[in-house]
Amino acid sequence: MIVDQQAAVYNGFQMCMEAVLTSGCRHYFASPSPMHSLLLNEGLTRFQSRHGICLQTQTPAEAVSMAQGVAQLGDIPFISSNYADFLSVQHLLYHFFHREIPCVYAIVLYEAPEFPGACTLPYGFACLQNAWPGSGFPFPHLMPSHLSHMQNNVQEAFALARHLQQPVLLLLDPMLLSTTQNVQSAEWNPLPFSAVEGSHHLRRAHKRHLELKNMACRWLRYWLPEQTPDYGLVAAGALGGWLLDMDWHENAVLVLDSLYPGVLQLPEECPSDMPLYVIEFDPGCLYEQLQQQYSHYLLHPIKLPWERSVPVRLQNTLQAELIAAQERSLQARSAPR
Amino acid sequence: MTFAYCAGCSHSQLHRILAEVLPSLPVSTPPIGVSGTGCSEQMGQYFDIPFVSAAAGQAPAVAAGLKRSRPERLIFTYQGDGDLAARGLDVLMSTASRQESITVICLNNLVMAGSGGQMSPTSLTGQVTTSTRLGRSQSRMGAPLKLAETVAHFPGVGFAQRVAMHTPEAVEATHQALQAAFTFQQEAQGVSFIEVLGWCPPYWDCSPVAARQRLESDVLRQFPLGVFRRARGHV
Questions:
Q1: What mean pLDDT comes out for the span B98-103?
Q2: Angle value at C-alpha A180, between A175 and A185, nearest 5 degrees
């Protein structure tokens, strides 16, 4: 375990690298890019002290190719980049899917909080909700919302990659990476995997998809009040972690750890027609993504403007936004068609 | 053995030379090969050694990853001129600048044969290809890239040589060059690079015999054989 029965203070970058190393990874390749480089810097220090190989490559494509070399010999390498670089090397990841080579790829989702519009999900993530284009293979991805949880997610990502023999993505919220939190040594339950059999790769891909869909419920964390909640708040990334940390008595808080199909299954205690407010920083597209995937739920968007002081007065801001959103939906209902 | 290559292809000849060189290397475990894209991609099926195929141009980076993971193994890439010079020269340069001890073998047949005979960076001035019907124009398409000379100038390259296979003497020289390249790798002297001049009868639009003659009369004039870097101890 990372810490022995007691809490320790970690920065997000430190926690990520520490969890990667304790997952047994010994090879890390990355090319510097804005914000994400802090992860690389942390890796360069920590891997060296643990006799691992961490290498700064000239391009993201080179990082992916070097990882391919390592993975072909049986190790599971760790790669990281920001989202723009990930888009530029997707064609190389195809080789990983096609040849069933495992790796864990961490994507730092956006720029630093100092940049305007530091939202967790600024781009469309349709690719994450479908199989990898052209291969038919499912595309598991995990998105931690607390540092304790990052530890579990990283271990889970390596276990998934080892089992499925394919890349697994870690979506890292830059706000979470730059946060310092107490990390409790959490219990991590190994994944309930059955052996993947079959020779036809599309059949295997389908089986993997069913298996992941069955365990999708693991990737929703929630807090419920004692009474039946009137409405629920849905969030992801660091914002989700902050919502869970609040002592909020009236409503349910649902935090997504993945956008994999089937993740958003309401707990039994929640009425199925409960309004769900999707909270994110502007200009995020989490609401649009969820609306496409879960059209049977009553989803409403709440887009918060990003300011440095947002985490400090988040509860007040949210309450004001919730009242405004409820008024808007009332007006929409009463308006003549 | 029957090759999938076209009649008279120089890949099959280089395969034979490699099949003689690889078992003679003083190593207990077989080397690991990394093939690029194009015609060279087929090499793995003819050798009973571990083979990895890489994305276009990425073979040196994949080989570097293999070497970092298993430094005791001999690692080599087998690429064509289109894969190495057009798609992946930057990858080779980055790999060389980190002084990765791998062997890079490039069969330079002056065309992108795998994709249909288009002009490659090493195509001769005036050479007719499927994408330069009137011959390569130096003013429009630039001058041919001299691979071995260029790579020899990259920092971290310990050995760079250009060889050919059109005569028995040239074949023997290729044998020795490949052995020297693997020796440089064993001594951890950085990238050892071998450019083997080959031919491509279908896309040179001539018979295999005429292709060899053309190599001697035209190609060697622009791409002279020789050792362009042989420097130990710089790593």
A1: 95
A2: 115
